[in-house]
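REQUEST ID: PR-0412
SUBMITTED BY: lab tech R.K.
PRIORITY: routine
TASK: structure prediction, single protein chain
INPUT:
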Amino acid sequence: ILRRSGPARLRSRPQVETEEMRPQWFDVDAVPYSEMWHDDTFWLPTFLSGQSFEAWYDYAAGGEAKNLVLESDLMPIVAATPRKQPAEGRSEISPP
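STATUS: complete
OUTPUT:
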């Protein structure tokens, strides 16, 4: 799986629960990685730090039941233009 990520903007539309996920907010220091997909432990801290990246993952056979990354590679992407800083009192991951 190849994942490419850059700065995200929070959307104003309501988040919808699915069979796979129930949207919730967590403090950055309390993200429940043990309840998430294994690859999230590799890329989410980089994403939350504001760094753009490209990542590659090789999963063990067994898919969702196994949920195990065998190999990964996360490569930072150097931004061509500086990022806009969040408004005072907000952070990149502040809820709307």
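NOTES: The chain has a mean pLDDT of 78.
REVIEWED BY: pending
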